[in-house]
Amino acid sequence: MLNSKSRTIMLISLIILLFIGVSTIDTLNPYTGNTIKPINEKAPLVSVLVDKETAKSTQDVLDLILKNDEKTIELKPINQDNNYLLLKWNKELKKISFYMIKSDNQEANFEIYSTDKTKIASGKLTESYKWYEFDVSPNGLSKENYILINNGPSNIIINQIVGLERPESFSNRLINILIEGFI
Amino acid sequence: MKYILILILIISLPVAEANILEDTTNFFKNYFSLTGQVISKITQTFTDEANPKLDLTTQEVSELKKSCEDSDSIDYNKKGYCKSKLRTFNDFCSKDNQMVMEFTCNEANECVKSWYLCEGRCFDGACVDVVKIAVN
Q: Is residue A161 within 8 Å of A47, Cβ to Cβ?
């Protein structure tokens, strides 16, 4: 009933749809990390302590902030320890959240910067564990990399860190789907 | 009669065509000269804006430095604004009223922003004590 031209067109359309379908399955189930936060909030890809003098990584602490468990990072004041916490995601974020507490009854002043020295947030921690959620969607605050600095005098204990990545634009997503499909 | 008309048409065509061509040439000549003038004027304006006069007086330099104004000088307990050449930004609270978005001037005289975690709550663009809110 169908001539050969129509059959070819239908076959090509079917193949394209199949590629889109297969690649969409992958993008709909992103890696989420182990966290009690909503499924679309991801742990960072990199979490390391960095020496401010040498700018070299001194300790990989990613494992300590991934799960909702007893493991924590204890970030000492930068004037005592010289270390800050560097966090990297795959994409720019819309929201960054820290589950943290100060270690004693002294003040724990913290600052969050992006790696291009843009100040994102600052404040003082309390004596009980709390989620600190910073909306970084406003223009200029959305970055892939962030730095947490403890200005003391108390230590900061961090249990979990997650970020909500910025959604891709429709055109970018479509291009990625097509590329993934053909690869 | 028909042949005569065709003959007249054939003779007059080059003349008419010449006129049309001349008109068109003039039109485009004028058009481009006009757009050229406009473009030149716009470019001059941009150049003037990009390169302000070099012989600035002390007062003019001082005025330029003041091109960014922070009304509360990073006072989290006051609702302030940051006014740059481009626009004005007002301090505002986060959705959960835990933080204030504080605007201030940077070294380049631009308005920059960052969150500050209030010790009490954020109310109408400023950090306030929880007791104060309860009284109000």
A: yes
Structure ipTM over 0.85, yes or no: no
Cβ distance A121 to B113 less than 8 Å, yes or no, reads: no
Strands (DSSP E) contained in chain A are 41-42, 46-51, 57-60, 73-75, 83-88, 93-102, 108-114, 119-124, 130-135, 145-153, 156-165
| pTM as predicted | 0.65
How does DSSP classify residue A105? S
Residue range A86-115, pLDDT digits in tens:
999 999 999 999 999 999 999 999 999 999
CA pair distance B81, B102, nearest whole angstrom = 8
Amino acid occupying residue B71: S
* A163-179 pLDDT, tens digit each: 999 887 777 777 777 77
Q: How many CB pairs under 8 A join A and B?
A: 35
Asked if the model's pLDDT at residue B83 lies above 50, the reply is yes
Strand partners, B69: B83
- Quote the tokens at residue A1: 């009933």
Asked if A134 is an interface residue toward chain B (Cβ–Cβ < 8 A), one would say: yes
User: Which of B86, B94, B114 to mutate: most A Cβ within 10 Å?
Assistant: B114
Which residue does chain A place closest to B95, by CA atoms? Answer: A135
In terms of DSSP bridges, do strands A73-75 and A83-88 run parallel, antiparallel, or are they unpaired? unpaired
Q: Are B72 and B125 in contact (CB under 8 A)?
A: no
User: Do A163 and A96 form a contact (C-beta atoms < 8 A)?
Assistant: yes
**Rounded-to-integer distance, Cα B90 and Cα B124, Å:** 10
